[in-house]
Each structure stands twice: as structure tokens, then as C-alpha cells.
Backbone:
């Protein structure tokens, strides 16, 4: 049974999964808000069919000293050590299920990595006022069972959100639903805000 996380809540992944986890998948899903009079279509139509929003999931790996070890995002789909893999960029949010996924092989995450922070940015700089049905969820990669889900319900003028952190604590992996709004089209501009939430 999946847990619906609240902002700030922390859980033990092993406990929720019913045993030791070796691989987890962070899934991100969203839809462009339906517009009544086609305003979104007119303002943001661009080349990808009107009313689409390009959100990007990223994962930043930090060590114990809060220094960046590596970053996985649409410009680098795999961490240098191979433990974190982004499955590809979705530029519209169209379709059911996860729009983007980041797969983490916990057994391969280097020992010096203390935490993995998952974020979402609006590459087209559209605000979350224009996004609906947004969520992130953590899935057990071995059983495909959803462990936890966090609804990104905060609508507003922000263009990014620091979703969640998966981190080591006393020999086990835990998850913290951060849910902090941010600003920036790419992960680079969000880094100072992420570090503040470590």
C-alpha cells in the first residue's frame, strides 16, 4: 500500500517496501492545465502543440559535506558511476502515467554519496499555475510496486520545485518529502535553493 506523503514527512524506504531495496524509480507526472478560451494555446503554443508544458526531472547527488558529486538531468542522462539513470525527456506532459522517470540502483550508489535530491523545473519558464495533476512517486524497481507518492499540489508563480530527498541514515535509505517551491529553468539555477534544504 503506497503512502501519500505530506510536505516535510520522512519515511524509511525499507520499512515501506517490506524489505531491503536495491533499485527505486522516481516517477514524475503532470498535465498542462486545460484552458477554457485557448489562452494557453495562444500564449505558449510554440512548436510542440498548444497547451503543453515541458517539466524536467533531475537528480543531484550530494556527499556528507553537501558538495555535489554528480547531476543527472536531460543533458546528462546517466551519472558517471552508472547508479542513476534518467529514462528520457518528455516535453509535453501528454499521456497517462509517469512522464519522466529516474532509475536509481541503490546498491551501486557510491559510499560517499549521502543524499539524492529530486527536483522538477519548468524549462519553458511557465509557472506551476499552468500545471495540474502533478506528482512524484517512488516505485520499488524490483516489484514495480509504488512505495510512496507526493502530490505537487502547490500552484503559484514558481517555475521549479524541490520534490524529495532520498538519503542514507544509520545504514538504511529514507525519503523526505521536501516540497519547496523554487525558481529556475534548469537544475543549475536551482542549486543554491537545493543546498539550503539539505
Residues:
Amino acid at each position: 500500500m503506497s503512502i501519500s506523503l505530506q510536505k516535510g514527512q520522512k519515511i524509511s524506504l525499507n520499512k515501506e517496501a517490506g524489505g531491503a531495496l536495491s533499485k527505486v524509480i522516481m516517477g514524475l507526472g503532470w498535465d498542462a492545465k486545460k484552458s477554457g478560451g485557448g489562452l494557453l494555446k495562444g500564449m505558449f503554443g510554440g512548436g510542440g502543440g498548444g497547451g503543453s508544458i515541458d517539466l524536467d526531472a533531475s537528480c543531484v547527488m550530494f556527499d556528507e559535506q553537501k558538495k555535489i558529486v554528480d547531476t543527472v538531468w536531460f543533458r546528462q542522462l546517466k551519472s558517471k558511476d552508472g547508479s542513476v539513470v534518467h529514462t528520457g525527456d518528455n516535453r509535453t506532459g501528454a499521456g497517462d502515467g509517469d512522464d519522466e522517470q529516474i532509475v536509481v540502483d541503490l546498491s551501486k550508489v557510491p559510499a560517499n554519496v549521502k543524499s539524492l535530491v529530486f527536483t522538477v523545473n519548468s524549462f519553458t519558464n511557465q509557472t506551476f499555475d499552468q500545471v495540474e495533476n502533478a506528482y512524484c512517486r517512488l516505485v520499488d524497481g524490483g516489484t514495480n510496486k509504488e512505495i510512496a507518492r507526493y502530490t505537487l499540489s502547490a500552484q503559484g508563480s514558481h517555475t521549479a520545485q524541490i520534490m524529495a530527498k532520498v538519503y542514507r541514515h544509520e545504514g538504511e535509505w529514507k525519503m523526505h518529502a521536501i516540497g519547496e517551491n523554487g525558481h529556475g529553468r534548469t537544475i543549475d539555477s536551482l542549486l543554491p535553493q537545493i543546498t539550503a534544504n539539505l
About this structure: The first helix runs from residue 13 to 17. Residues 36-50 have pLDDT under 50 and may be disordered. The chain is about 10% helix and 45% strand. The first strand starts at residue 3 and ends at 4.
